[in-house]
Amino acid sequence: MAPGEECVTELSPPARGQEKRKLVARLSTYAQQQPKVEDSFLIALAKQGDPTAYDRIVRRYYGFVRLKASSYFIAGGDSDDLIQEGLVGLYKAVRDFRTDRESSFRNFAELCITRQIITAVKTATRNKHTPLNQYVSFSSSPTSAGEGEPTLEEVIAGPTVHDPVNQVISTEELASLVACLGSQLSDLESRVLSLYLDGYSYEQVGERLDCDAKTVDNALQRVKRKVGVHLSSRNVLL
To answer: Which residues does residue 73 pair with via DSSP β-bridges, in sequence order?
Structure first.
């Protein structure tokens, strides 16, 4: 199969419908992830030694850690190890977060988690005496890296909101987005996006769908464009 060529595997109509419903259900969970308790309140309790508060923070951000960890790959590495490193980064974020210095905990946590994972990857590559370019981030495509474009997960997730009114608006916009993706995406795009949101890397998605990483990247870029067009039509700013 030539690089970038569409996968030839076809699904039966019932299977296609099942894949679409699965994707819509998965994306709908984003609407249920709005925090009911402010991060800053839980962090304050966690710093005082409250294990329940810290456990809630971990459960709240575990999916985020897993997504970040799945965005990196290293030959011979273990995804579970990267998730553990991400959780170490989350712990450091809770430990070091200061409301008088940081704009939001989510942004600070993302920075700490990403740094911890990259440090672990670099350490592993040094130990194996392999070039550092064997680790890559799949959050930005090769064609858009460094151009300041939002990543796919950022486009789908949209801006982080804490104001109750904005949360309602965000939930309504998400419902509209879910409906859009359910009707506008091709079978390939739906399957690729579903696996990507499950935490699979480009290579792993390609293996499961019998296509190469370039095809996966092309499909995700089309999803990103369709989402962008939809949000622009509703005047939603990222």
So the answer is: 136
